[in-house]
């Protein structure tokens, strides 16, 4: 657990060091106290109830929520070494999270036109609906990546009610706990670790069909 602003300062310093060749790359898994963050496309009208601190960031995307029970991952990677292709980086990152979620029994997927990680949930009144279980917001500075992802393991989903999550009012958010799947950090982190080599391999390979 680490304050969002403190983590951001550490991340920025590490990214500068990686870019200067003074530190190794980093994938940092952490957790934040409740906070709303706004990306470069954030619309003030989508901040409905600022019940928690609001921080404007340099990452892409709109408003999102971070809080206890959510696995945050910051990736500080050198795309000079791994292909200067931001779209491919995001696609590879999505694939890594989808594989890890699959290992804990969650059938997750990409949704055309909607960045993030999605899954199917029961809809009110019957049927099913698509719900967001993971958010992605990245920044690339001199081909060094910053920020990364959040995956809802067992956060208080009512905290998302203070914003329009990622600017998508028609889609709910969900979590591993709501879906009845393993929601502890140790289990999910182990799944991330097992699929990490494949993520790096995909990231380093020229992209082909990413439909």
Summarize the structure.
With 211 residues, the chain is α+β, with helices and mostly antiparallel strands. The model has no long low-confidence stretch (mean pLDDT 94). Helix 3 packs antiparallel against helix 4 (185-204).
Textual characterization of the structure:
With 211 residues, the chain is an alpha+beta fold. It is built from four helices and nine strands. The strands form two sheets. The protein has a six-stranded antiparallel sheet with strand order 1-5-9-8-7-6, with helices on both faces. Strands 3-2-4 form a three-stranded mixed sheet, with no helix packed on it. A hairpin with a 5-residue loop joins strand 7 and strand 8. Helix 3 packs antiparallel against helix 4. The longest helix is centred in the last third of the chain and has 20 residues. The chain is globular and about 55 Å long. The mean pLDDT is 94.
Give the topology:
Blueprint: H1 4-19, E1 26-30, E2 35-38, E3 54-56, E4 63-66, E5 70-76, H2 79-82, H3 86-103, E6 108-111, E7 114-122, E8 128-141, E9 144-152, H4 185-204
Parallel strand pairs: 2-3
Antiparallel strand pairs: 1-5, 2-4, 5-9, 6-7, 7-8, 8-9
Helix content: 25-40%
DSSP summary: helix tally:
4
Low-confidence stretches: none
- Could you describe the largest sheet, including whether it forms a barrel? 6 strands, antiparallel
Tell me the total number of β-strands.
Answer: 9
Order of helices and strands: HEEEEEHHEEEEH
Write out the strand line-up for the largest beta sheet, numbering strands in chain order. 1-5-9-8-7-6
Distance between the termini: 36 Å
Question: Looking at the structure, what is the overall shape?
Answer: globular
Mean pLDDT: 94
Structural class: alpha+beta
C-alpha-based Rg, rounded = 16 Å
